[in-house]
Write a sequence for this structure.
């Protein structure tokens, strides 16, 4: 049985894609009479199958060393491409996490998109999305990881553009695709170069190669930077971070996955590439700098947002910045643990937010308030998600941060400050959102808000339970440090920063006597944060400007210079023949004159020549 | 066996054109043409089963003496380079006939010209005598010129004349080079086999090769010889555009490989760096100009200019892997550009415009063109090199194989994939996303016959994308043979002895 499951492990990503393909008659509108529900059920069944497959493999292979399954794809001369699969605790665990969250998100979508006419298309895209992600989790070669990351880019584009009739959605989908594409392009350059230099794209062989490789420092740096660009785009790190913020125009069930596991996929690939990145210290430094800038910048920006989904999306970038820092310090295990804790709690937060936006039909924080008593399950989900995300004993976020603080800050104590800052600011921001949405006086749009329907509450409550169980899971996997370490100064600092963040937030936003400012005070500060430190203007004056100008210049050159020259030759030859035709007069004296002039000119030129 | 591919359509074309109107009604002529195209497609399928994939040499050879004093003989043969191109020609001719307007004017002339075009292209890919190749290369010009001039858009006269003049110059240059080769060979024979392995001085070789490159470069097209292409595409009717982009541009790159690389491999290696630079120019220039276009057809036409640059890049690298990549990219571009033109054709026939500034919200599920829009998204993504479709693996092979030879040029060419995404995403965002305006609220009904051709090509694009081995297996031995031609040491010696002749072979690009 196990052997069969191992041999068929390549089916895990295929299930999702198969679900998408089977749904095509509904998503393309061929079947209209039966409604789109069967499409949704089909995809949910496929996800359940994928989940079962992963879980059984995971439990069966738990105690075994990692297995490799190679599926040959294309062999051509010295190029040998295959899709290899790694079956290990980590990779299967990641696949289980993805399928569980995908299942919950799809269930959630049953309630969230109940009245949407394109339900079939949505589920097809979700199936595709899930397939690409589980593929990345199991992939054991950089080639297939890259290919799947590109597929993820495509499905992100289509999911963000799901409501394509709205103008903001149109630009958001385009920006998501192009921003990620910039990262993908640089990564492709890295992959091609690496394939030519190392002769293989298999992770294990690459790691072995990296140990003995003797590359020129410049080559190693350029290679590493190119490879780094892909995860920077995927994980929404500065300067490729704005797409995630804009992507919040898409449907909420997709946002659940996007903010929890999709960004994690980029980081996961980054972790797999770590041995190659380590070839150059410059690359590792860049990685750390990017992570640090994003962690602090995005934490600040999130406080300035008045859109409920965007306020949370920036914290995703910030946490992924912490993951980047961990990878930069070569602490892969820490990075994975933080990704795991973050994924669950962020998914829960987004479910809660999705439930709020569905019942209030708005995403604007200024229009909300007083939902706590009206939506108890939703507010509980938000509260648990917040606590699980920041460093509070004994929830998942705390343990991840505690290990982060212990291992990553070795030799670089300054990093601890970043962690505490991010943690404190996140705690403050979450309290801010909680206060604005769930506490205070009800407003026009929240006065009659009921609790979300069961199809939304069921996955939400399940996820609450899972979030609460994270410490138990960590204990089972023997990832928890000894209880004594809780009393260490590092832990106390983390808890302290959370408490300060929560406290400040509560003082401002949960205190009825206090008038609620939206952000941090000062108008100009507030503006610059709300506009993401004007990063979009940075794009506008650099890449967008260059491409637009280049295109106009090229088109002008093409039309007036290249084609103009061709037309000029055409016109000149017509003009020449038109004027020459007047020499054909039909009178012999004219011809004779022409001959005489010709002869004189001929003789004259001969005389001049010799 | 191979003659059937050429003479069956010629006979059918004659029959359609010459039989009296009473027998050959417009409907009948369409049926005959499609039946013949189907037979040809089937015959190509049969040839595929008979083809020996292990052999690098010519197969199914046919040979008759024709006009011996001129060195003209009727010699046909097929190898791993011509086979995929023949296959794509047979397929696209059928699809072009299928999507031709049923009610077009002068149907009998149209269908007989289509048949003649199919025969001419097949003949050019199969001919193993240089003069015979030239004849077919010119024959294919006549139907194309007439198709643009008769069934084209509002500026058809200008576009058709431009096309004719450019291609005639291309033909003249090629003929000159062929005569040069035949004269210098000593035996004055145009037979392909006798012209291989000529011992010529390098300077002579270079002169001949540059003539050949410019001649075929017009057809590819290489910037700045490309301006006939956008005009021809924009004015040509959809089926002609499909064939023009899908098959006829490949005559240029086929000619470069067959008569450039294979006949003059040493000289090819000398000018390869220059070709790589031209490829970069093609890719970047074509992509940038495409971004600024508002006419969908022009956008697709300029994207063709860009994507043919990849073929040039891999051809310049000339290693076994890169020749395989050249062939894969030719197939990939043939299918994807044909698909794009098919879809743009449907959009144009239903909405009456191709302007992306005017079109909007065509994905609308009730009153728009949702399935055509979805297929458009798929084809655009295939063109931008998203994995799972043939564009990705073809481009990956091009980059991977050219990188060791021309690292800088390859990296620059890769920018093209991102630029492709820019202009095609623009196309999708502007014309398919958004709200459907009232002006397009009552589009004519769309039938399955509008969708089926595109569906077939999409299926192929995805199938080959998932199993690229299916297109690459045919040409492995041929790629190996082509990629190992020539002696790299003579090339290096020549470049070192004449450092001023080729300033373009900068060390950064050839190391």
């Amino acid at each position: 049985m196990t052997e069969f499951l191992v041999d068929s492990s390549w089916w895990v990503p295929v299930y999702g894609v198969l679900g998408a393909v089977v749904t095509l008659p509904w998503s393309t509108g061929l079947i209209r009479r039966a409604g789109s529900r069967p499409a949704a059920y089909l995809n949910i069944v496929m996800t359940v199958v994928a989940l079962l497959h992963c879980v059984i493999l995971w439990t069966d292979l738990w105690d075994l060393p990692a297995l490799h399954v190679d599926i040959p794809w294309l062999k051509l001369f010295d190029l040998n491409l295959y899709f290899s699969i790694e079956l290990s605790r980590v990779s299967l665990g990641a696949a289980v996490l993805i399928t569980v969250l995908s299942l919950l998100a799809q269930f959630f979508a049953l309630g969230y998109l109940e009245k949407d006419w394109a339900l079939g298309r949505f589920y097809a895209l979700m199936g595709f999305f899930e397939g690409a992600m589980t593929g990345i989790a199991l992939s054991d070669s950089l080639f297939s990881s890259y290919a799947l990351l590109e597929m993820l880019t495509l499905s992100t584009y289509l999911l963000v553009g799901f409501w394509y009739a709205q103008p903001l959605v149109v630009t958001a989908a385009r920006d998501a695709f192009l921003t990620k594409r910039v990262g993908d392009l640089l990564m492709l350059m890295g992959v091609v170069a690496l394939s030519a230099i190392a002769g293989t794209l298999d992770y294990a062989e690459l790691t072995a190669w990296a140990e003995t490789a003797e590359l020129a420092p410049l080559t190693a740096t350029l290679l590493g930077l190119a490879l780094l660009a892909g995860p920077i785009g995927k994980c929404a790190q500065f300067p490729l971070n704005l797409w995630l913020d804009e992507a919040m125009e898409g449907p909420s069930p997709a946002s659940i996955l996007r903010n929890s596991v999709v960004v994690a996929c980029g980081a996961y690939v980054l972790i797999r590439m770590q041995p190659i990145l380590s070839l150059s210290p410059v690359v590792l430094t860049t990685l750390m700098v990017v992570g640090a800038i994003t962690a602090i910048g995005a934490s600040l920006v999130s406080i300035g947002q008045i859109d409920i989904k965007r306020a949370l999306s920036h914290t995703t970038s910030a946490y992924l910045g912490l993951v980047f820092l961990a990878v930069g310090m070569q602490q892969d295990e820490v990075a994975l643990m933080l990704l795991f804790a973050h994924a669950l709690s962020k998914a829960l937060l987004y479910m809660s937010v999705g439930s709020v936006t569905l019942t209030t039909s708005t995403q604007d924080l200024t229009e909300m308030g007083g939902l706590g008593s009206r939506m108890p399950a939703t507010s509980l989900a938000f509260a648990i998600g917040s606590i699980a995300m920041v460093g509070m004993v004994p929830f998942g976020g705390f343990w991840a941060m505690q290990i982060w603080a212990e291992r990553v800050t070795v030799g670089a104590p300054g990093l601890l400050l970043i962690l505490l800052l991010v943690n404190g600011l996140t705690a403050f921001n979450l309290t801010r959102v909680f206060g604005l949405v769930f506490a205070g006086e009800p407003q026009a749009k929240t006065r009659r808000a009921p609790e979300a329907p069961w199809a939304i509450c069921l996955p939400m409550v399940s996820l609450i339970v899972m979030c609460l169980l994270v410490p138990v899971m960590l204990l089972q996997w023997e990832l928890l440090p000894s209880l004594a370490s809780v009393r260490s100064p590092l832990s106390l600092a983390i808890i302290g920063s959370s408490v300060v963040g929560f406290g400040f937030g509560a003082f401002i936003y949960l205190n009825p006597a206090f008038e609620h400012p939206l952000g941090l005070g000062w108008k100009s500060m507030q503006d610059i944060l709300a506009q993401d430190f004007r990063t979009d203007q940075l794009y506008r004056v650099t890449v967008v400007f260059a491409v637009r100008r280049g295109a106009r210049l090229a088109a002008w050159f093409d039309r007036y210079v290249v084609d103009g020259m061709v037309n000029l030759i055409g016109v000149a030859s017509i003009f020449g023949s038109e004027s020459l035709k007047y020499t054909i007069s039909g009178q012999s004296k004219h011809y004779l004159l022409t001959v005489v002039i010709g002869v004189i000119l001929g003789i004259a030129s001969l005389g001049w020549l010799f | 066996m191979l003659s059937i591919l050429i003479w069956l359509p010629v006979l059918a074309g004659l029959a359609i054109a010459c039989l009296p109107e009473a027998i050959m009604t417009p409907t009948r002529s369409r049926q005959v043409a499609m039946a013949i195209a189907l037979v040809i497609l089937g015959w190509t399928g049969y040839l595929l089963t008979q083809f020996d994939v292990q052999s690098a040499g010519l197969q199914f050879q046919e040979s008759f003496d024709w006009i011996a004093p001129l060195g003209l003989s009727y010699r046909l043969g097929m190898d791993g380079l011509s086979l995929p191109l023949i296959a794509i020609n047979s397929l696209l001719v059928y699809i072009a006939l299928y999507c031709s307007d049923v009610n077009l004017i002068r149907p009998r002339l149209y269908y007989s010209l289509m048949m003649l075009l199919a025969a001419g292209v097949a003949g050019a890919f199969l001919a193993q005598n240089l003069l015979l190749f030239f004849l077919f290369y010119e024959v294919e010009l006549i139907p194309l010129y007439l198709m643009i001039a008769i069934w084209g858009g509002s500026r058809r006269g200008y576009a058709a004349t431009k096309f004719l003049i450019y291609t005639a110059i291309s033909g003249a240059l090629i003929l000159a080079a062929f005569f040069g080769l035949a004269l210098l060979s000593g035996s004055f024979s145009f037979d392909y086999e006798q012209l291989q392995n000529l011992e010529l001085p390098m300077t002579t070789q270079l002169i001949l090769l540059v003539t050949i490159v410019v001649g075929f470069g017009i057809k590819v097209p290489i910037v700045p010889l490309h301006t006939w292409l956008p005009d021809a595409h924009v004015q040509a009717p959809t089926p002609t555009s499909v064939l023009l982009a899908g098959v006829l541009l490949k005559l240029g790159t086929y000619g470069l490989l067959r008569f450039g690389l294979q006949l003059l491999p040493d000289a090819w290696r000398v000018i390869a760096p220059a070709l790589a630079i031209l490829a970069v120019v093609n890719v970047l220039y074509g992509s940038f100009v495409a971004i600024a276009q508002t006419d969908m057809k022009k956008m697709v036409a300029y994207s063709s200019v860009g994507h043919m640059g990849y073929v040039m890049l891999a051809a310049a690298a000339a290693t076994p892997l890169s020749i395989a990549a050249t062939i894969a990219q030719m197939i990939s571009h043939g299918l994807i550009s044909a698909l794009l033109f098919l879809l743009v054709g449907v959009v144009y026939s239903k909405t009456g415009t191709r302007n992306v500034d005017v079109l909007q919200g065509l994905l609308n599920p009730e009153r728009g063109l949702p399935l055509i829009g979805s297929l458009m998204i798929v084809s655009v993504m295939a063109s931008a090199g998203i994995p799972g479709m043939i564009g990705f693996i073809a481009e990956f092979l091009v980059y991977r194989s050219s990188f060791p030879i021309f690292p800088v040029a390859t990296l620059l060419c890769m920018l093209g994939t991102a630029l492709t995404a820019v202009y095609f995403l623009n196309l999708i965002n502007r014309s398919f996303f958004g709200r459907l305006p009232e002006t397009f609220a009552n589009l004519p009904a769309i039938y399955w016959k509008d969708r089926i051709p595109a569906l077939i090509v999409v299926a192929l694009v995805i199938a080959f994308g998932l199993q690229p081995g299916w297109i690459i297996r045919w040409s492995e031995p041929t790629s190996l043979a082509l990629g190992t031609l020539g002696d790299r040491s003579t090339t290096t010696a020549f470049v070192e002895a004449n450092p001023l002749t080729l300033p373009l072979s900068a060390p950064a690009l050839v190391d």
